[in-house]
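Tokenise the fold.
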Amino acid sequence: MNKVDRFRFENTHKFLSKYITNEEQILDLGTPNQLSDFLINKGFKLQNAAGFDFDLNPEQVNQYGYDVLTAFEVLEHLVAPFGILQQTKARKLVVTVPLRLWFAPAYRNVNDPYDQHYHEFESWQLDMLLEKAGWTVKDSEQWTPPFQFNGVRSVLRAVTPRFYAVYAERKA
């Protein structure tokens, strides 16, 4: 695991642990990955949602049994994340997204139509999306990854928050 992934995984675990217990059932919107394995190894009861196009069928999220919905680096890949955020039956939500960087274009993998960012949020935009979808933001953090020199952009990245984590609860 590289330095940036370890940083992101450890910060995600620390943030998640503030609000979610190891007894709660978590549904993560992502496919199985290193982060979900890391969190399972830390004792969380986490299952991944896989094989659904949540843009076209957001209601499919409710066929799972879970207490908490997580979306770790997922919402930026959805064309319309509002539907799934609104339709989930979860009472708790933990989301992380990469923040929009003014000095770099949005991520795009031209070889994979699913591996690209349709959105790169500013923190206020994600907060607004969550509020409109029926959530109350209770806590948030911004993280600046560890410095790795790869040119001028890496210097800018060293002083610019790249990740945004949010804990929200369903409005009553």
Observations:
- Residues 38 and 63 are 25 Å apart (CA to CA).
- The two ends are 40 Å apart (CA to CA).
- Strands lie at 25-28, 45-48, 68-72, 92-98, 135-143, 163-170.
